[in-house]
Amino acid sequence: MMARLAAAIVLLPAAAGCVRTVAGVVTAPVKLAGKAVGGTVDMMTTSEKEKDEKYVRQMRKRDEAEARAQREREKECRKHPERCEG
């Protein structure tokens, strides 16, 4: 009886360590999934400032494209005035 009690006392700290390790292994996927979902949500949400910056970039690109097309039309009119209106 004494030997069993001594063995239980010696093995108890080791078993506690195993329980913590098992608990860590079991909860690890949940913690990782939470981080992945949180990261995805953060990446998918945009602030008003980010939306405004994106809108300004799009407008600038559109304006540059229109200006480029206008310069091409003017250049074409200088080369071939008969093709231009007015």
From TrEMBL:
Keyword Signal in record: yes
PROSITE patterns the record matches: PROKAR_LIPOPROTEIN
Basic and acidic residues bias (residue ranges): 47-86
Stretches for region Disordered: 44-86
Signal sequence interval, chain numbering: 1-23
Organism in which the protein naturally occurs: Sphingomonas ginsenosidimutans
Name of protein: Lipoprotein
Keywords: Signal
